[in-house]
Amino acid sequence: MLKPKLAGMIASFLIAYGLLVWYIGWNGWVYLNTLFELENRGVYAAVIVLIAISYLIGRAGQSVSGFGIGLAARVFKLIGSYWFAVLEYALLLLPVANIAALILKTLGVTSRQYVIVVGTIVILMLGALLIRGSWNAWTPAVQTYRVTVNKDAGGRKKLRIAVASDIHLGTIVGNRHLKRLLKELDRMKPDLILLPGDVIDDDIEPYIRNNMSEYMRKLKAPLGVYAVLGNHEYIGGHIPRYVEEMKAIGIRVLMDESVLVDDSFYIIGRKDLSAGRTPEGRLSTAELAAGLDESRPLILMDHQPSDLDEYAEAGIDISLSGHTHRGQFAPNHWITRRLFELDHGYLHKGSLHAIVSSGFGTWGPPVRIASRSEIVQVEVTFEPPAP
């Protein structure tokens, strides 16, 4: 039984979402009806409603097998993913288009003329955004940061770390994109590979079905491959299975634990913020760092970059996060910029070098505007203080 407050919030969301879908659908109907003189508005409305809820349909049915249900669910999820991008940019473009149409109407332009002209411009702009956004999503860039840690790393002077956060392996992102990751890492030749959460996109079923482990197992580095949990691993609810799958291919998932690598530096893996809503919870950064040899460099992975002050106070030298996607598509980056002290890039805070990646994969539509799919390369120099 839903609590009244929660029920009210859900009802308000559904009403608001329904009105937005109606607004987009109405504009689409005016344009198409002007072009083709359509008659069956009911069929059109049904198609719009189906598209608007297709992600939920796909999400609910993607694990179902038999009678083509699983395939149909994956198609619905793909359509629904692209719908999210269409929804956002339509809501940005259509009000301007409606104002332009009113201006043209007052200037004496016929309704057929201004509807077709303005509507076509909107469609072309929307298409251009989706095409460019798809290129940004499927063409990863390498972002390099060079940092100096003033600690002794057991005689090690240099360390090259490859970081791939937010891969989101699932229905949308799969083996083809993984090949791009492997190609870049082969060129980079890192000493260490770190995966700061959201390796899978909630449900583990597509990962298993598409045998993605055959590509993930090719992630190799002399000092190992380590990962932490992200919020989407918690959303999927298959954490034990996920951890076992990673372990089987040589990737260790650190869950509120640390490991001393090559007797040189520590990697600390923190559970995602989502763990705070579970019975076991998660440890603070100070608790994770307690008992470690602080004369050694401390490298922390925490999926969400929500505790930079805490990292600095705990003596962390390098923190690596993702989660934000830098908003994934503009103007969402204005929101992530306000939500996080650092939503993308690099920040030097005391002795802490904080780095946040926009992520290698995507959530929802494989579209990025004002952000790129990226792999982070961290070039670390260790310079112990003079005795």
Automatic annotation (TrEMBL):
Record bears the keyword Transmembrane: yes
Name of the protein in its database record: Metallophosphoesterase
SUPFAM superfamilies linked: Metallo-dependent phosphatases
Calcineurin-like phosphoesterase domain sequence ranges: 159-326
Upper lineage: Bacteria, Bacillati, Bacillota, Bacilli, Bacillales
UniProt keyword annotation of Transferase present: no
Pfam families in alphabetical order: Metallophos
Residues spanning the membrane: 6-30, 42-61, 81-102, 114-135
